[in-house]
Amino acid sequence: MARKKIALIGAGNIGGTLAHLAAQKELGDVVLFDIAEGIPQGKALDLSQCGPVEGFDAFITGTNDYKDIAGADVVIVTAGVPRKPGMSRDDLLGINLKVMKAVGEGIRDNCPDAFVICITNPLDAMVWALREFSGLPHNKVVGMAGVLDSARFSTFLAWEFGVSVRDVTSFVLGGHGDTMVPIVEYSTVKGIPVPDLIKMGRSTQERIDAIVKRTASGGGEIVGLLKTGSAFYAPAASAISMAESYLGDQKRILPCAAHLTGQYGVDGLYVGVPVMIGKDGVEQVIEIDLDEKAKAGLQVSIDAVKELLVACKGIDSSLA
Ligand code: APR
Question: Is the whole model's pTM more than 0.95, yes or no?
Answer without folding.
Answer: yes
